[in-house]
Structures are given as structure tokens and as C-alpha cells.
Amino acid sequence: MRLDKFLSNMGVGTRTEVKNLLKKKQVTIDDKVETSPKKKVNPEVDIVKVNDHEIHFIQHVYLMLNKPKGYISATSDAQHKTVLDLIDDYKYLDLFPVGRLDKDTEGLLLITNDGQFNHELMSPSKHIAKTYEVISQKNITKNDINAFKVGIELNEGLAKPATLVQGDELNKSFVTIYEGRYHQVKRMFHAIDNEVLALKRMSIGDLQLDSTLAPGEYRQLTQEDFKQLGLK
Q1: For 25-43, what is each residue's pLDDT tens digit?
Q2: Cβ distance 229 to 204 under 8 Å?
Q3: Predicted confidence band at 232 (pLDDT cuts at 50, 70, 90)?
Q4: Rounded Cα–Cα distance for residues 69 and 83 (Å)
Q5: What is the dihedral of CA 204, 65, 210, 127, to 10 degrees?
Q6: Phi, psi (degrees; rounded to nearest 5) at 22
């Protein structure tokens, strides 16, 4: 990889800013000053420093975000705040949300720059479970639970069987779905003559939302998290 591209990709600055750093002899490779932006580097082997600060190579990032209400699941938007506006780090790595949560939905959202990771989690053939906490207008009934178990009829066809469980408070329940249709949980509740007042995603697969993350906070995924997702 060209030196200027590596430094730019790692967030040191724009290509122009990087070239200025090189001209000022502020960049070293293995403790030797380098001034050429075309110099080839192996980021996983060479020690690159800017003003004696080592620039570590990061290829892929995997983050767990506790998404708050009011943010859309997109990389950019002219009118609304996006979930990437909450991420202070790694902005130079072309991050994007894995799947989506509606603007007024909160909870577990994964952020990455790894397309394969996104595909493995979002592919319809994977049928990865997603569980949501629902605050609804009415309390759920046994008939509702059975209806979800059979499959709710939506405009585009029958939804896959889902699990609906009564929560420990009135009008609170938990629903687990195995697909990701547009506004799916809200439309399923509407189909049983109920309305969703608040929605929060609690888990993806066996990966639970970290209870220590306040809304808007995030952390990197651990190896245990990957195991919970069934990926590593």
C-alpha cells in the first residue's frame, strides 16, 4: 500500500495534509525518515510513525451501539442525524450499520466496515433471531401469542413464525423474529389490533445488548460476542 494512502486511511489527514507531513520530514518508517508519498509499506509489518506517534493498522472494526431514538440507520442524510454521528472513532474507515433500526427504535445495533460480516448477519438464508422489547397499546393475549407462533399475515405474505412472550409489566412483551421485513414488528402488532408505542432491540442471535452501554454509547465486539453471534 502507498504510504500516503495508508496514512490517509488511518485518519492522519487528507492526502494533501499527509504530503505536507512528509515534506516536513515528520514521517518515519522503521525509524527512518520518509518523504515520498509513493513509498510502499506493509502496514502489518512496517512501523510507521508521525511525529514519533506510531500509526497502528486497522482493517476492520466491529462495534456494538446502544442506538437511541431520533437517529436513522444510514451512513449519511441531509435532514436527519444518523447513527454514525454517534461514533467518534474510526470515521475514516467507511463505517456502516449492519441492518437497520427505525428512527424511533432504540437498542442493539452493530456497526462495521466489513461487508462479509454484514452479509453473514443479514442474509435471509441465515434466519438469525432478533429479539425486541415491546411496549404496546394493549396487553397481549394467549390468542396473540398463538397467532405469532403460526405466522402473522402481512401485505406481502405470511411472516415466518415468531415468538411472543409476556413481559413482567403490563403492556410489555418480548418478540423474537427470524427475518427483517420493513417495520416488521410494528406491522405484526398492528395485524393483531394492537399498536407499538416503544420498541427496543435486545439481542441478535445470542448476543445481548450490553446493559452497561447508555443510549448513544458503543464498544468494540469481543471474541465472546462473535461466538454469541455464531460467527467465530
Answers
A1: 999 999 999 999 999 999 8
A2: yes
A3: low
A4: 10
A5: 0
A6: -65, -45
